[in-house]
Design brief:
The chain is elongated and about 95 Å long. With about 525 residues, the chain is an alpha/beta fold. The chain contains 25 helices and 10 strands. The longest helix has 16 residues, at about 505-520.
Amino acid sequence: MNIQQAFATALGFQQSGQAAEAARLYGEIVAAAPQFAPAANNLGLLRADAGRDMEAVALFRRALSLSPDSLNGWTNLGALLVRLGRPEEAVRAYRASVRLKPDQPFILNELGLQLERLKRADEACNAFARAAVLAPGDAEIANNHGAMLRMAHRPNEAAACFRRAIALNPQHAGAYSNLGSTVKDKGIFWKALLAFRRATRLDPDFAGAHWNESLVRLLLGDFVRGWQGYEWRWKHGRLPSPQRSFVQPRWDGSPLKGRRLLVYWEQGFGDVLQFVRYLPLLAQAAGTGGQPVYLECQKVLLPVLRSLPGTIAVETGGPLPDFDVQIPVLSLPALFGTRLETVPSRVPYLSVEPDLAARWGERLAGLSGLKVGIVWAGSPIHGNDKNRSIGLAPFARLAAIPGVSLVSIQKGPTEGQAANPPGGFPLLNLSPDIHDFADTAAIMAGLDLVVCVDTSVAHLAGALGVPVWVMVPFAPDWRWMLDRDDSPWYPTMRLFRQDRPGSWNDAIDRLEHALRSHAAG
């Protein structure tokens, strides 16, 4: 039996489900004829099916070294690399497939998905757009294209893609959910609710749609249904913090009666700072003769959260104290039955270490007039950072106001901008010496006002009872609600909202006017 005959026999075994016989014969062919690429490729498929992934990768690469123009070879390698969580290599494999045959919408769609995973939105959008032209009747490709257009802040085009996906497949729950998110970005909240509700009717277990609906309800002030739906966040699977698994049961809000409670952190710094307000209330209600509530939190928050009354804060990742029941911090509003009129808004609920405040006060002592701390950017990995961060340049207008001294308390990748402000406007740069939130809090104790974008500093200032002005995007995070310039969560906060997506001009005009009036006394 020659090589071609042996290969045909092995292929017959493979097609009839006799994997072991096919693999044995392919292996013999590879050993006898190492230049015969089809046998290496097919043996790679069998090894991948058997979970022997590294062998499969090696076989696919060997086959491609022999036959670099094999479309199937590159597509097989790309699919395996996707399964192995190696998107960069998968992109290279799919790009090779596209070069060989650029008219295959399935391959372009797979390429787009991997580029999306790598957050290369423009390239992903291009791949999906090409796929959509080739397969105008494919609902999934239309949905994927829309998702990338939304990420690229092209909401009208994105909405059109989602509507086309729905027209092609009226049962496409994902397209309805994506449409809901897109019209929410445009500020059309009732349409967003309808779209999310349609998605969950089609797929009752669609966690993302349930959670997104809850965010809109909270934004609109419907706290009862909002908190209820917010619990879907754990099944959504896209939070920046994982759901924890403890042997101890989750606390259901029943009287503690001596049971020790652990509240643990989730999501971002601002989320924790906003909702630890409930811990002193828990400690008061525990009725355990001084038994504290335990709080597990991120390391940089630990120094400032130690000031919470009735609470013992411990660092995440370290040994936990003995406890009997546990709950994530953002589930506390639901257990308290928090409504708009019952938000626990008394501030301050955090305090500053006096010695630390005195040391930072010395750095501020030379400033004259109104001392204003500024923050111009949030974390770049935040999903909405492009909409909320504004850069340092707009603050030049505030620096020019008579009787105002600006102080940089920005942290993160953009803090270096404070060393050389645009146009050279005067700015006291404290950023390099800020090590944690306790330092930021101590600086705030010596400031007259904080002006910032929607980031954790806003919550810290609010929790300390420091006057804080926050610049809020057009489609805001749920906690800032709508059509108000104050916050039910923070009595010392004032909100300056965008009047249209993508433009801060009007909001900064209003903020500048307000600051001029404030500085003039």
